[in-house]
Amino acid sequence: MNMLSTTALTADVSQVANPIIEDDFDFASISSSALLVYVSISSWTGKIEAKRVSEEVSQQHNAEDGVTQTFKKLFGKRDKHLFAIQQHITATRTLFKNSTSPWSDNGQRLVTTKAYFNLMKEMTGMRDKFWELVEDFLTEYNNKIIDMQARMGSLFNMDEYPTVDELRSYYDFKLEDTPLMPVGDWRLDVNADALQSAKDRYAQMFSDRSKRLCLIYGSVCTSHWLICQNVWTMKRQVRQKNTTPNQQRQTHTVF
Fold first, then answer.
1. Are 133 and 87 in contact (CB under 8 A)?
2. Which of 31, 41, 68, 210 is positioned for an S-S bond with 180, CB 3.0–4.6 A?
3. Which residue in 25, 1, 11, 2 sits closest to 221, CA to CA?
4. pLDDT (tens digit, 9 = 90+) per residue, 103-133?
5. E strands, the chain, where?
């Protein structure tokens, strides 16, 4: 039987292939793979500072003016229409935040081009639902005022309630998208030399690691072969020791 040689099991480090990084490989830039999106939502809370009540509370407790501040909920503890609008706004902002990444201090956030269309579809649906909830509230607005006149007693003040047209102007839902300009932002101003340098460093790092792995693999294989060779030798010696001269002439040892 032919014996394996240690040279056949030793890794040839010079044959390690470099990582596949072609010279014309184009690193994807942020400006080509992402966009900026912006959402701004405004609404009316239905709360107003009751200055006259605040002054009366201060006088009752012999306190200075400005020590107390009282707010009135113009439609009671929890109006179902106002509550539905606020819940929807919270859900919209949560969706937008979870689907994007921070980018600037003015509210613009980053979304990948892959996720962009799905995000815009969802946000457009949220915007349509927002205006639907607002219109439901405005439709019932005047009836709500009449109801609150009986519920608020002497705290009711008609001048504190805006008109329907004024109230509609308090609501807004802006959804904007902007392409990333590849200039004017240090996060995007990465020139070709920097990209080539990063590519070279990656190739060198990959090559060094591959060589180390091959050296380790070759060493393990060589050690394994040497152990096997020693076992075979010991096995042969034991057989020869326990075999009579007559048996040795008639028996062929198979390794």
1. no
2. 31
3. 11
4. 888 899 999 989 999 999 999 999 999 999 9
5. 34-42, 47-49, 71-73, 101-102, 109-112, 172-179
